[in-house]
TrEMBL record:
It holds the Pfam family ParE_toxin. This is Plasmid stabilization system protein. Keywords: Toxin-antitoxin system.
Length: 102
């Protein structure tokens, strides 16, 4: 069964910043980034438990062709995947931990 996908508000900011950066390099690269992130979101919705846990209940999935990681948790009883961050792999995982403490 396919899970619903919920993005916490700060994730939209993560995605805008990343896409803007790629658009400045090349318009088609920005569009490709968006496509690859959406493909990964679709995969996570279908197979949420596929990826390993990184910290407590937070799982991580890698975006194909781009150095970005999607951090999410599963609310099994509600059948919802909650995305808490989409960060460049060079960014510290501490950002995700800080978001969870708020």
């Amino acid at each position: 069964m396919i899970y619903k996908l919920k993005l916490v508000p700060v994730v939209y900011q993560d995605l805008r910043k990343a896409r803007k950066w790629y658009l400045e390099i090349n318009k088609s690269l920005g569009e490709d980034f968006k496509l690859k992130v959406n493909e990964e979101f679709d995969y996570i919705r279908k197979y949420p438990a596929h990826y390993q846990k990184r910290y407590k209940e937070i799982r991580q999935a890698f975006v194909d062709r781009f150095p970005y990681t999607i951090y999410y948790l599963i609310e099994e009883e509600l059948r919802i995947v909650v995305v808490v961050g989409v960060l460049a792999q060079k960014q510290s995982f501490q950002r995700i931990k800080k978001r969870l403490k708020k």
